[in-house]
Specification:
The complex is a heterodimer. Chain A is mostly helical. Chain A contains 12 helices and no strands. In chain B, helix 2 packs antiparallel against helix 6. The chains are: A mainly alpha, B alpha/beta.
Chain lengths: ~300, ~200
């Protein structure tokens, strides 16, 4: 009993630590794109500790609850994601549960920042929820592709089905689905073509306008867990999971660097352009993949 | 009169541990009143790259640690600066950027600007020069980091301790200015009186 509690808590801290390290390395990586050197790789840890050491202003008790709920939803999602083959407790890695838990991050944030009463924050979170409406369509279609190909929604068995070698990875067998997945990942991480919810010079960093001290620290942690879960999903679905924890994290790291490279060279979509792009282009690619998979499964369409 | 007792406002031992992290991660809010906005982009972009020290721009007062007041402070902007400063959560620091917040600079005799920013909000560090080059800015910020690490940059505690003194100084400037078209409406004490005057005038019509 106590051991399992320690395991779950330890896994939560591990996920946050890895996410923050990714953010730190990512800042250095983006800096090289600008021909700068950038901060040290442990900068994100320093930022989080500093945020928690400051005084913070709460506008309503719902703001406190919402910030915690946002973090808790994503941490709960990370518990069902097999890291390599490791899971903090026995489960099959049900992808439907992860898809249900992931929006709780944004919904908690929406509750928290709407309670602060700032109009810019409401605009920002409205954009974030609209964007969520956009990327759920290609991502749900990708999950349908997986069900069509493997008859399973379990991430553990999806990972095992790709263990035969490089050629059995879904990036080779389902290329259209992979491209759709990368586009959806870019929107989930709110990186550059889809960072309309943050937009610092337009709506003063959107949902984060009123967040000070602790709340900003919680938002940082939420983003770090989000990076871990979302890149982890792409790695498990398309890049063969991983035989071990180290390989899994290396693959996640490469996916995150790809996302940052796209972030460094693109400009920003408006929110309705972003939703249209996600529905028609990414959703269309995912749909083509679904049709191919259904054909391979039954021989007829 | 300004009250400062060093023992009271210097940081304790526990605070000094946190000060290490605070000094390595400074987020700034810049209030570009007039000039000075041009010197900041080269400081932050590839030539001088101030993000090496963990210093970066932030969008709102709630998130920021440093309030950077660049250039001259006119009487109108002083009100906004004080409001931005009071919205920032503690610990917070103010950096006066350029000669004008130090002593008025070339606007010394102007009716529209204030001469010494330190009388209205506590300035922890002044970067003199008109304008300071990015090298001077980085040098100043490294000094500020050193001061924060030693627990010597305690302007926000000074502000709390001498709140009446600062408020009085601010009031002297802010209530001096009155809009031309409706005399008397700017100062808080005179609002009632002005309303009475206006109602009398409307009654005459």
């Amino acid at each position: 009993m106590i051991l399992s509690v320690v395991k779950v808590l330890g896994h939560a801290f591990f996920v946050m630590a890895v996410g923050l390290l990714f953010m730190g390395v990512g800042r250095r990586f983006s800096a090289r794109f600008h021909r700068r050197y950038g901060p040290p790789v442990w900068q994100s840890y320093i930022d989080v500790i500093k945020c928690f050491s400051r005084k913070s202003i709460s506008h309503h008790w719902i703001m406190d609850m919402g910030s915690v709920m946002g973090l808790a939803g994503l941490v709960a999602a990370s518990m069902f994601l097999p890291v390599g083959r490791y899971l903090p407790f026995q489960s099959t890695g049900p992808i439907i549960v992860i898809l249900y838990l992931m929006p709780i991050g944004y919904l908690g944030m929406a509750m928290g920042v709407s309670a602060s009463g700032n109009p810019l924050a409401s605009i920002g979170i409205g954009r974030a929820l609209t964007l969520m409406l956009g990327y759920e369509v290609p991502f749900a279609t990708i999950v349908l592709c997986m069900i069509a190909a493997f008859n399973s929604t379990s991430l553990v068995s999806l990972g095992q089905a790709q263990q035969a070698g490089f050629l059995s990875w879904n990036i080779i067998t389902m290329p259209f689905g992979f491209v759709a997945g990368i586009i959806a990942l870019q929107a989930m991480l709110a990186e550059k073509p889809f960072d309309t919810m943050i937009a610092p010079s337009e709506i003063a960093s959107g949902p984060m306008v009123e967040l000070s001290g602790k709340f900003l620290g919680l938002a940082f942690l939420q983003h770090s867990v989000g990076i871990f879960v979302e890149t982890g999903l792409i790695v498990t679905l398309f890049l063969g999971g991983g035989p071990g924890v180290g390989f899994f994290i290396l693959k996640q790291f490469l996916v995150y660097m790809l996302s940052l490279a796209i972030n460094a060279i693109f400009a920003r979509y408006r929110v309705e352009q972003a939703t249209k792009f996600l529905w028609f282009t990414a959703g269309g690619l995912a749909f083509i993949q679904l049709v191919i998979n259904m054909y391979l499964r039954s021989g007829t369409i | 009169m300004l009250k400062v007792s060093r023992e009271e406002i210097l940081d304790g031992k526990f605070e000094r541990v946190l000060n290490f992290f605070r000094s390595r991660s400074l987020w700034m809010l810049y209030y570009c009143t007039g000039c000075g906005a041009v010197e900041l982009p080269p400081t932050m972009t590839s030539r001088f790259d101030i993000e090496r020290f963990g210093i970066g721009p932030m969008a709102t007062p709630r998130q920021a640690d440093i309030l950077l007041v660049t250039g001259y402070v006119s009487v109108k902007t002083l009100k906004r600066i004080v409001r931005s400063y009071e919205q920032m959560p503690e610990p917070k620091w103010v950096v006066g950027f350029g000669s004008c917040p130090v002593n008025g600079g070339i606007y010394w005799k102007s009716y529209a600007t204030i001469n010494q920013l330190d009388r209205y909000i506590p300035v922890d560090l002044s970067l003199s020069g008109c304008m300071p080059r990015p090298q001077a800015v980085i040098d100043g910020f490294v000094n500020l980091m050193e001061m924060i690490r030693k627990g010597e940059a305690v302007g926000y505690k000074k502000y709390r301790l001498n709140y009446e003194w600062y408020k009085q100084n601010q009031a002297e400037v802010l209530e001096r200015t009155e809009p031309v078209l409706r005399p008397g409406i700017a100062s808080v004490g005179k609002v009632q009186e002005t309303k009475k005057k206006i109602s009398v005038m409307e009654g005459v019509k």
